[in-house]
Specification:
Layout: H1 13-16, E1 19-22, E2 25-28, H2 29-43, H3 47-55, H4 59-70, E3 78-81, H5 87-94, E4 100-104, H6 107-119, E5 126-130, E6 143-149, H7 158-168, E7 169-180, H8 189-208, H9 211-223, H10 227-236, E8 240-247, E9 252-259
Parallel strand pairs: 3-4, 3-6, 4-5, 6-7
Antiparallel strand pairs: 1-2, 7-9, 8-9
Amino acid sequence: MTDNSFAPSPVSSASQAEETDFGFRSVRKEEKKPLVRAVFDSVAGKYDVMNDIMSLGIHRVWKRIFVTELGPQPGLSLLDLAGGTGDITFGWLNGGGGPAIMTDINASMLSVGRDRAVSRGFVSDLSFCVVDAEAIPLKDMSVDRVSIAFGLRNCTDKLAVIREARRVLRPGGRFMCLEFSRVQVAALAPIYDAWSFKVLPAMGNLVAKDRDSYQYLAESIRMFPDQETLADMFREAGLSHVRYHSLSGGIAAIHSGWRL
């Protein structure tokens, strides 16, 4: 059983329509994007270090599994949402995938990814664009794969993101999401809570001089829908053959759905 002190305070039904979560805080929906942007402006330069700290480096294994399941092929195109510093996009291109569009709502994050792309010699079949995943500036049925890794939980309207992903997919295209999820091993839960809410913010303060951003990131994981709830959201958005599988006892999960 996890420590109830880590549970968020309930939000009254009267305010739920206008409010959303920012970690364990309730904020007005229009306030969340600037708040999230400020977090990632702060951590952009330390983002890869942050992920290593949050997952003890295991995120690199999860991403390799994720890219393999995306199934890179020369004739397929990829739209990578919340692309961060480029790990998924680069994995796609290294795996033999076709043209890729790397996007992020945060220009600071995208700048880091662009610099990394140049340093790795990715100069063709790759474009960059600042994109709000809730309103993708692409035509209907224009890409073969849409990916989002560790970004969906930071979006205000998650269902809108999934619907937009389906909209831009060609028939036969696939949307895949890699995200922190709900721990499914009871013995792991108290250890994971202690790591998330005690060790992680302290490490964030030490490494990046930014305790608050790391506290938010830990809280945002707990507020994210569990595996079954997210799968239902995929179905509600119109995706077919929806499935998921948990990684590392449910610390993370990969969800996927197809546009038929």
